[in-house]
């Protein structure tokens, strides 16, 4: 006897609820019928940081910001050999590479295409490279200004690995945390920023 | 012939001899001016008009009775008021989505067939959108936000604009929510700034010099999404339509000048 009552209540409640409950997440769920489960996991579903920063439109209140810093500091992993200052020339190459990781049917990358750091898309670095973007702060002279004592090296590595641990809801990707760059590649980027021989600090 | 020679000359100036003292955008502005009465997008516009007026498909009908929101057959000014809610489909639709509805219902072409390869340079759908958009030249952007589904899509579109995901944590807002920002030397519109939003939204569809192709707004957005390393949303899906409702809202009042010329 109970079942029809539930059914009736459900039918009555459904249309209004369906309309009111149509959120951005509902829309996302039905707009990518071609995405594979792996693409949903790695590219569309949000982790806590992404969800919080989206909800607060990248201006998190203090308590949320503190929570993000705490959780993201815990994600940072250092290279097994302990070398945080790599090869600045390799780092310089990485800074100019903007390819890798494109998917879809229109213009995908081959799956093994090298992923770059693409630092120049957003940051000024070596003075000789004039085609530098400005979404991030200019980093020209980064090492000249800071030196390369062990704590500076460690701090720089950590920022590239997971910038959210220092600037909650920053635009900068979490290059190490997401696995976009390897710890070795991040060490090369650190050297590009801090090595006194690097063009970031020489010109 | 003379026009083609002028275009080549313009290209050489714009991309061959850019001095450091002159920004890329100035060079492109100059190139645009030289092409003012010879935008290659005009060929797409003409082809789109032919597709609109020629009887085709299993029903051997033209699109002349297509309702783009201002009544059957009214093309003038319709694009500037898209996306909007359509009662017959009970959906908010953008130009691509609505044209597919018309191709399906009036001409009898199955939807997946009409959409096949739509993103390729010179596709029928891009030609049709270009034709329709051109018929709004001089009209202010005024996508309605009156039906409950339109209001809901505006709010959802804003949420999607800020929705971060993927390996690089990107959202539209990562690059398009501040003034005077660039990726490398490419200047980025700020859709939080109505003036900047209008400058951007009023020129699409546009001939893209770097692609040698006319791109519609939806094609442009899907390439942004690709660059963010996200999967491609389905053509005319609610996500891509809601995003356009938001962008058109930010740009409302901007006077349509398209088809434009872009990098």
Give me the secondary-structure topology:
The complex is a heterodimer of chains A (203) and B (263).
Chain A: H1 2-20, H2 24-31, H3 37-44, H4 48-55, H5 62-73, H6 88-96, H7 142-146, H8 150-161, H9 183-194, H10 199-202
Helix pairs in contact in A: 6-9, 8-9
Chain B: H1 2-16, H2 24-34, H3 41-53, E1 84-86, E2 91-93, H4 95-107, H5 111-115, H6 124-134, H7 148-161, H8 172-176, E3 181-183, E4 186-188, H9 194-201, E5 206-208, E6 213-215, H10 217-227, H11 238-250, E7 260-262
Parallel strand pairs in B: 5-7
Antiparallel strand pairs in B: 1-2, 3-4, 5-6
Task: Summarize this structure as a short list of keywords or feature phrases.
heterodimer, A: 203 residues, mainly alpha, Cytochrome Bc1 Complex, Chain D, domain 2, 48% helix, 0% strand, globular, disordered N terminus, B: 263 residues, 3 domains, 3-stranded mixed sheet, two-stranded antiparallel sheet, 45% helix, 8% strand
What does this protein look like?
The complex is a heterodimer of chains A (203) and B (263). Chain A has 203 residues and is mainly α. Chain A is 48% helix and 0% strand. Chain A contains ten helices and no strands. With 263 residues, chain B is mainly alpha-helical. Chain B folds into three domains: 2-34; 41-134, Orthogonal Bundle (Cytochrome Bc1 Complex, Chain D, domain 2); 148-262, Cytochrome c-like domain (Cytochrome Bc1 Complex, Chain D, domain 2, Orthogonal Bundle). Chain B starts with a helix and ends with a strand. At the A-B interface, helix 2, helix 3 and helix 4 of A face helix 7, helix 8, strand 3, helix 10 and helix 11 of B.
> Termini of chain A, distance in Å?
84 Å
**How many helix segments of chain A?**
10
The computed structural class of chain B is: mainly alpha
Helix content of chain A: 40-55%
Main beta sheet strand tally, sense and closure of chain A:
none
Q: What does the radius of gyration of chain A come to? A: 22 Å
**Silhouette of chain A:** globular
Q: What's the CATH H-level homologous superfamily of chain A? A: Cytochrome c-like domain
For this structure, the CATH topology of the largest domain in chain B is: Cytochrome Bc1 Complex, Chain D, domain 2
Proportion of residues in helical segments of chain B: 40-55%
Helix and strand sequence of chain B: HHHEEHHHHHEEHEEHHE
């Amino acid at each position: 006897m109970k079942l029809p009552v539930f059914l009736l209540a459900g039918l009555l409640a459904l249309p209004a609820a369906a309309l009111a409950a149509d959120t951005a997440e509902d829309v996302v769920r039905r707009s990518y019928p071609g995405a594979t489960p792996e693409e949903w996991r790695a590219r569309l579903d949000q982790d806590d940081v992404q969800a919080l920063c989206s909800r607060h439109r990248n201006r998190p209140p203090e308590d949320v910001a503190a929570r993000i810093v705490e959780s993201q500091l815990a994600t940072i992993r250092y290279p097994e050999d302990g070398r945080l200052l790599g090869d600045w020339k390799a780092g310089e190459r990485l800074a100019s590479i903007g390819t890798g990781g494109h998917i879809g049917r229109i213009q995908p990358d081959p799956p093994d295409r090298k992923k770059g750091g693409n630092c120049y898309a957003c940051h000024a670095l070596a003075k000789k490279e004039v085609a530098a973007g400005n979404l991030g702060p200019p980093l020209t002279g980064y090492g000249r200004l800071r030196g390369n004592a062990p704590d500076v090296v460690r701090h720089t590595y950590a920022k590239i690995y997971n910038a959210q641990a220092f600037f909650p809801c920053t635009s900068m990707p979490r290059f190490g945390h997401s696995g976009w760059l390897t710890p070795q590649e991040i060490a090369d980027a650190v050297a590009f920023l801090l090595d006194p021989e690097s063009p970031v600090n020489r010109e | 012939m003379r026009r083609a020679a002028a275009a080549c000359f313009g290209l050489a100036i714009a991309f061959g001899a850019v001095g450091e003292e002159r920004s890329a955008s100035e060079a492109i502005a100059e190139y645009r001016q030289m092409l003012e009465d010879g935008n290659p997008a005009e060929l797409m516009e003409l082809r789109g008009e032919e597709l609109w007026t020629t009887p085709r498909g299993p029903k051997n009908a033209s699109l002349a009775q297509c309702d783009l929101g201002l009544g059957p057959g009214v093309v003038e000014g319709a694009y500037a008021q898209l996306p909007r809610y359509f009662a017959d489909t009970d959906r908010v639709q953008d130009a691509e989505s609505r044209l597919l509805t018309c191709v399906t219902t009036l001409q009898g072409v199955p939807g997946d067939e009409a959409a096949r390869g739509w993103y390729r340079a010179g596709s029928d759908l891009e030609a049709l959108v270009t034709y329709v958009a051109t018929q709004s030249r001089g009209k202010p952007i005024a996508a309605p936000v009156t039906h409950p589904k339109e209001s809901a899509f505006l709010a959802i579109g804003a949420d999607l604009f800020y929705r971060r995901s993927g390996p690089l944590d990107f959202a539209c807002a990562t690059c398009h929510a501040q003034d005077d920002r660039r990726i490398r030397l490419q200047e980025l519109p700020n859709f939080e700034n109505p003036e900047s939003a209008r400058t951007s939204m009023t020129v699409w569809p546009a001939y893209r010099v770097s692609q040698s192709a006319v791109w519609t707004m939806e094609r442009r957005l899907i390439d942004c999404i690709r660059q963010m390393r996200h999967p491609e949303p389905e053509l005319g899906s609610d996500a891509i339509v809601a995003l356009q409702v938001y962008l058109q809202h930010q740009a409302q009042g901007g006077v349509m000048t398209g088809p434009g010329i872009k990098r």
